[in-house]
Amino acid sequence: MTSEPEEQENMPEGDDLVAAEYVLGVLAHQERLAAGRRIETEKAFAVHVTRWQKHFDCFSDDYQPVEPPAALKSDIDRRLFGEARQLQTPSLWSSLGFWRGIAAASLLLAAVAAGREFIPFPRQSSGPMVASLEAAGSPYKTMAVFDPRTDMLRLKMMEGEMPADHSLEIWLIADNGEPVSLGLMKRDGPTEMPVKPAMAARMRDGVRLSITAEPMGGSPTGKATGPVMASGVVRTI
């Protein structure tokens, strides 16, 4: 049996402790963002994170995936929102009204952003972020919403049709101006995708999202090779 002094000696500290807390998901939001940025820039810290990920992976071995009952979500919706919720068959992300509301909000944010140098504007980095993506001469207009609480990115094409012989690839353009792929847009319906922590840490007010037309399946080089079909700046709501 391990004695208490030995356990204390084996306790992680410094960067090793931060890496362990990052993997467990117990860091505060701003600390998690900072840790995500360090993973990209500090090899030693990234090694700590990888080691803790492997260490904690074994904890899930005793758990088997369970398919929830088909009626579970309906029961939860009914308890939270009452019987009227059952009438709302389309999901929120498929609702045209929702995306029109987001579009209106993005226009307001763009107007406010133009005067940020002169008007104080409180930012809530933990709040949802939106971007209206379009380009001069392009038939495409897309709305994007990023939720930093879940690291989920959702996009909906408001104008234009998916090309039959190309894929539309989404790129994040942050500090150094180098586009980094976030994935491909779905060919039908809104696109929902989880953003990896390292990329989510870079998703903040003022960065740019762009969509390019790439060969089917995405860019073969890992870099943007096709024309920009739509682009826009991310703003915090």
The third-level CATH topology of the largest domain is: Immunoglobulin-like
Oligomeric form: single chain
Q: Within the largest sheet, what's the order of strands?
A: 6-3-2-1-9
Arithmetic mean pLDDT: 75
Find the structural class using helix and strand composition.
alpha+beta
By CATH reckoning, the class of the largest domain would read Mainly Beta
Number of helices: 7
Distance between the termini: 53 Å
Give a quick account of the main beta sheet: strands, pairing sense, barrel closure.
5 strands, antiparallel
Helix-strand sequence: HHHHHHEEEEEEHEEE
Brief rundown of the structure:
This protein is an alpha+beta fold and 237 residues long.
Characterize the structure shown.
The chain has helices at 4-9, 15-24, 29-41, 43-57, 72-81, 96-114, 197-200; strands at residues 129-134, 141-147, 152-159, 167-173, 180-184, 191-194, 208-214, 228-233, 235-236. It is an alpha+beta fold and 237 residues long. It folds into 2 domains: 1-89, no CATH class; 93-236, Immunoglobulin-like. The strands form 2 sheets. The chain has a 5-stranded antiparallel β-sheet with strand order 6-3-2-1-9, with helices on one face. The chain has a 4-stranded antiparallel β-sheet with strand order 5-4-7-8, with no helix packed on it. Helix 2 packs across helix 4 and helix 3 (29-41) crosses helix 4. The protein starts with a helix and ends with a strand.
